[in-house]
Amino acid sequence: MSQMHSVYEQMRENILSLGMKPGERFSERTLESRFEASRTPIRAALSRLEGEGLVCRDERGWSVTPISFGEIEQVSEFRRCIERDAIALACERADPGHIDVVVEMVTSCTIDGPRAEWHRVGTELHVEIARMSGNAFFVRAIEDVMLRLARARWLEVWTTEGRERSIREHLHILELIRERRRDEAVEAITTHASDACRRSLAALMGDTKQRRGLAIVGGSA
């Protein structure tokens, strides 16, 4: 693995897991020391993260991009539109073996397992549903959407209740795809995405330990 890719992967994971908090400022020199890397790979990694909207730069230096309520709402709206079409095609085209693999992936998560694993599986589930559609453009779109929502979605698996709800809803959606129940699958994934957006925004607006210290744009401070 190249030095640039190593720095990029570590920073990306820290940002998406809220280890590096929205609004947190940092310098290239600090990153050089932290990752024991030279300036060139650090700048290349930052350029890639900037392109993904995870870091931003101003005259004072670098910072982790604040969470934007407006962006969450718009991305969630876009997500609902593309997931409805993707799951409709998945109900027609999904291979039963593919569904079995995804079900196994979902059930592999234990309620008391690492939050990072729950977050990863939740993301991959939606990408795999898009893959079942047989359309690569849906896959790319969902990958981008889930990246944009990653930090807000982190709060979805904060509690045991959230994890139990996640596995229950995901398995129900997969069963609807398996049974080719197109209209019900479209309704289920639309409701799932809408509720996830609502819960994330509510958690970010509330005075909860999850949200403290996070820079949030468009909500109460």
From TrEMBL:
Record's keyword annotation contains Transcription: yes
SUPFAM superfamilies: GntR ligand-binding domain-like, Winged helix' DNA-binding domain
Keywords carried by this UniProt record: DNA-binding, Plasmid, Transcription, Transcription regulation
PROSITE patterns registered for this protein in UniProt: HTH_GNTR (PS50949)
Residue span, HTH gntR-type domain: 1-67
PANTHER family attached to this UniProt entry: TRANSCRIPTIONAL REGULATOR, GNTR FAMILY, UXU OPERON TRANSCRIPTIONAL REGULATOR
Annotated protein name in UniProt: GntR family transcriptional regulator
